[in-house]
Design brief:
This protein is of the alpha+beta class and about 220 residues long. It has 5 helices and 8 strands, in the order αββββββββαααα.
């Protein structure tokens, strides 16, 4: 009868249950790391190696994708970061890079480090495939963004006065991280991240906002 078969099956299952439980626990024990086993390897970005550039600033590079240039400023550093945005299939694109800037108390240790406190508003920009995009973020959240064509002969989608007013009107900290994005893009357009290790990328270039774009070309 069905009920008798079910009862017999149930008894057989209950008889085997302790054996199955012991086998399961043994398998889990075999997979768990023992105290003698070394911890699993973690893949971390190698520490940055800093050197002094010919113009006296400190520079560091991570492979061919990230670079820093930091100028001593009292007990702090005024740092520029550049990140190469080229994809393998974009060799035809001359300029594909993003820039950010920030004041830090010690030299960055990671290849992709946020410069300055996260609570500050961060101006940054990217240039890729003939388009320059400027944006302001805070806590990794976008506040405002605008794009324009590149090259722009050192003109920007945003005037310097607009950016400074945006920071002031919205009680934002971090205006010291603002810089002349199109001027940097133009300076790197005929070079690479390695150009940061030359006097082509100088601190005055970051803060120069000419009323007449041709003023900068004469520098």
């Amino acid at each position: 009868m069905p009920s008798l078969k079910l009862a017999a099956h149930f008894r057989e299952t209950m008889r085997l249950l302790p054996i199955l439980l012991v086998a399961f626990l043994a398998a889990c024990t075999d997979q768990a790391p023992s105290a003698d086993q070394p911890p699993a390897e973690t893949h971390q970005t190698p520490a940055l190696e800093w050197t002094k550039s010919p113009d006296g600033a400190m520079v560091a590079f991570y492979k061919n994708v990230s670079a820093y240039k930091c100028w001593p400023d009292g007990s702090d550093y005024d740092c520029l970061q550049a990140v190469d945005l080229h994809e393998p299939y974009e060799a035809h694109i001359q300029t594909a890079v993003s820039f950010s800037r920030g004041r830090v108390s010690k030299l960055p240790t990671e290849a992709f480090e946020t410069l300055g406190p996260s609570s500050h508003a961060h101006y940054n920009c990217s240039i890729d495939d003939g388009t320059m995009t400027e944006r302001i973020t805070r806590n990794d959240r976008l506040l405002i963004e605008e794009s324009t064509s590149f090259p722009t002969r050192y003109s920007s989608a945003w005037e310097a006065a607009f950016v400074k007013d945006f920071y002031s009107s919205n009680n934002l900290s971090g205006i010291e991280g603002y810089f002349n994005c199109p001027a940097l893009g133009e300076a790197l357009s005929s070079g690479s991240l390695e150009t940061l290790n030359t006097n082509v990328i100088h601190r005055a270039l970051l803060d120069f906002f000419p009323a007449d774009p041709t003023d900068l070309m004469a520098e």
